Amino acid sequence: MIESETNPPASEIAKAIERLLADGAIAVLVTLVAAPVNVGAKLLVEETGAIRGSFGDEDLNRAITRFAGRFLATADEAHTFRISEFAPELADWSEAQILCERIEPEPRIVICGAGHVGASLAQLASFVGYRTTLIDDRAEFVTRERFPDLKIELVATTSWTEAVREAIGNGRGISIAVVTRGHNEDEECMQAIITTNADYVGLIGSKRRTNIVLDRLRQGGPDEELLRRVHAPIGLDLGAVTPEEVALAILAEIVARRRGGKGGSLSAWRRA
C-alpha cells in the first residue's frame, strides 16, 4: 500500500552530500521521477547502507536501499529505472521510476615522479579533468614555471613517504601512478601506498624492475591480494614509445579502471 510522509528539506540532503564528498565517500542520490505520489522526493543512500530521506513507503525505501548497492557496483553515473525492474513484488509502485545519480568526489590522480613520463601524465590528466598532484624529491622538477597549469598541485619533498601519505590519505577515489627514477624511490612510494584503499595503483618499469620492487614489498608481509592489485608494468599495451605516448597508455588504463572499460578495441566485434 502506498503511504506518504514528508521528505526532509533539500538543504539537509545537500549538507549530507557535502559531508560525504569531504570524507571521500560515495553514495547514490535517488529521485522519484514518476510515481502516484511524492514525485520529486529524494533518498540518499550511502555506501554503508545508511539513508537520509524517504519516499513515504518503508518497503520501497528498503528495496531501493538494497538496489543502491548494485548501482554503485556499476560504472554508471546516472540511470533511470522502473521499480518493477528490481522490486517486482511492490505492485503499487511497479510503473514508478527513479533516477539514480552516483555521488563521489571529483576524480583524483597522484603522480610520484616528475620526470618526462610523470610530467606528461600530469598535464594530460589535468586536461582530461582529473584533480592532479605531482610529487618529486627534486624541487627543480616541480616548479610553476615548468607547470603553468594552476590546477596541478606541485609537491617538492625530502621524504617520499610523508608526501605520498599526505597526498593520498586513505586512498579512496584516488588513482596513483608511481613513475619515479629508480628502485629505491619506487619502493619508498609503494610502501606508503600498498595498504591504502586506492582505486588504482600502477608502477612503471619493465617486468624485471617491477618484480624487484614487488618482491621487496612482499618481504614486509603485506597481504598478497594487495600486491595483485598493483598494475605493474603500468598502463595499457599501446606500443607506446615516447613519454607522451606512455602517459596516454597510463591514463587510458586509469580511465578504463574507473569507468569499467575492458581496454580492448571497440571494432573487435567486426572481426569476431
Integer count of domains: 2
The CATH class assignment of the largest domain is Alpha Beta
Percentage of residues assigned to helices:
25-40%
Write the CATH architecture name of the largest domain. 3-Layer(aba) Sandwich
The CATH topology of the largest domain is: Rossmann fold
Q: Provide the β-strand percentage band.
A: 15-25%
How would you summarize what this structure contains?
This protein has 272 residues and is an alpha/beta fold. It contains nine helices and ten strands. It is elongated, with a radius of gyration of 22 Å.
Question: Top keywords for this entry?
Answer:
272 residues, alpha/beta, Rossmann fold, 2 domains, 5-stranded parallel beta sheet, 10 strands, 37% helix, elongated
Describe the structure.
- By secondary structure, the protein is of the alpha/beta class.
- It folds into two domains: 10-103, no CATH class; 108-259, NAD(P)-binding Rossmann-like Domain (Rossmann fold, 3-Layer(aba) Sandwich).
- The protein contains nine helices and ten strands.
- It has helices at 10-23, 58-72, 83-86, 116-128, 160-168, 183-193, 207-218, 224-228, 243-259, and strands at 27-34, 42-46, 51-53, 78-82, 97-103, 108-112, 131-136, 152-156, 174-178, 200-203.
- A five-stranded antiparallel β-sheet has the order 3-2-1-5-4. A five-stranded parallel β-sheet has the order 8-7-6-9-10, sandwiched between helices.
- 35% of the residues are buried.
